[in-house]
Amino acid sequence: MPKHSTGGLISVQKRWALMILLCIALSTTIAFFIGSSANSCNSADYGKFSSRIDAVEPESSGGNKKGENPLHFMNSKLVLMVSHELSLSGGPLLLMELAFLLRAVGTRIVWITNQKPTEPDEVIHSLEQRMADRGVKVSPAKGQEAVDTALKADLVILNTAVAGKWLDAVLKDNVPRVLPKVLWWIHEMRGHYFNLEYVKHLPFVAGAMIDSHTTADYWKNRTHERLGIKMPATYVVHLGNSKDLMDVAEDSVARRVLREHIRESLGVQKDDLLFAIINSVSRGKGQDLFLKSFYEALQLIQEKKLHVPPVYAVIVGIDVNSKTKFETELRNFVADKKIMQRVRFVNKTLNVAPYLASIDVLVQNSQARGECFGRITIEAMAFQLPVLGTAAGGTMEIVVNGTTGWLHPAGKDGLTPLAANIVQLAMQVETRTRMGNKGYARVQEMFLEHHMSYRISLVLKEVLRKANS
């Protein structure tokens, strides 16, 4: 069961952590509609992570002796990590978290970002500073230093399919010497990544690590059918929640304080129901279809005169500095349907915990093939939230339909089922509570940091064995 603070007190250490969290939470811009005008106020941020392995130990849920770090064998090893970009998107953040897990056991980490903007970037500067503070060496993507590091490294981790372009561009004739110690961590599900320019060396690396069975199967079939190449040894590793996030999720006082502050900043009451989608804002993530379903749900509630608390939709992930055409479409839909009072738009954020503490239901509405994994789903389950997700991609490997949430079809076929699920959860507090508790139990069983560390350790051991054979 979730931990409750003894006597309603938080330790001094937790107090400071919570105060820092709240300061961050109240410093991120929230943009939302009130009446006919768009106003903004300040609010939150927080962090992420999760695992499971296929080829090494298929049915293992992950585990190790209490007190032992399964990654300890990586002590003093040199690992080169190559990311195609450095941003607040899932791939780079995931690689950063693995870097920090390895640094904790004494691994020497060198980080390369293959593509950087020519102009100074505040996000890149901040993330590079965070890595430097944790002992990760940030190096140039090109030049002899990059080549020498790749040749000396015990292991090279390429992050995302696009990072494959770095191999020929930088290593040139040295590519064959490096491939036997490359672990390729793939997160993509989109068809345009199946390009020989990116993945022609994929069959010759030591292994590929992929976040879900659905994505692994897709890559296996697509590379064979479209490119005529064969996948290397492939390991499916589900992700896991970080200890920091679980500490907040399991502290009832922290959750209550965050809930009150975020709800106040959003302009909603303590008993209002918040259905939130927390993701980068794009058509593939399905914010437009979510808003259509939400509008349909509001219509159902009104037509049937259902007695439910006020219901709100929260879209976390907009970019206040550069409005996109898609975001404009979302705002126009909200205005056209006259539901400005019921929708909140929130700036993109690295820190999701305050929002997870403040909402009642997570909507994971990724379209087409869905999410490769969708870490926000297990983070929401850690906060005992039911999940309404598309029956696609990694979401189907996380959400137990009817137990930890409900699944609906992707695309327009999912509009009415999602609307119906929103209405049902709005009406049934017992169902929300039961699903939230079941989701939390599933996280405890499968999706914690030590699960991920254990499963990744099996992959790293296998790749190192191949590299040294």
UniProtKB/TrEMBL annotation:
<keyword id="KW-1133">Transmembrane helix</keyword>
<dbReference type="InterPro" id="IPR001296">
    <property type="entry name" value="Glyco_trans_1"/>
</dbReference>
<dbReference type="GO" id="GO:0016757">
    <property type="term" value="F:glycosyltransferase activity"/>
</dbReference>
<keyword id="KW-0812">Transmembrane</keyword>
<keyword id="KW-0328">Glycosyltransferase</keyword>
<feature type="transmembrane region" description="Helical">
    <location>
        <begin position="16"/>
        <end position="35"/>
    </location>
</feature>
<dbReference type="Pfam" id="PF00534">
    <property type="entry name" value="Glycos_transf_1"/>
</dbReference>
<feature type="domain" description="Glycosyl transferase family 1">
    <location>
        <begin position="260"/>
        <end position="441"/>
    </location>
</feature>
<dbReference type="Pfam" id="PF16994">
    <property type="entry name" value="Glyco_trans_4_5"/>
</dbReference>
<keyword id="KW-0472">Membrane</keyword>
<dbReference type="InterPro" id="IPR041693">
    <property type="entry name" value="Glyco_trans_4_5"/>
</dbReference>
<keyword id="KW-0808">Transferase</keyword>
<protein>
    <recommendedName>
        <fullName>Glycosyl transferase family 1 domain-containing protein</fullName>
    </recommendedName>
</protein>
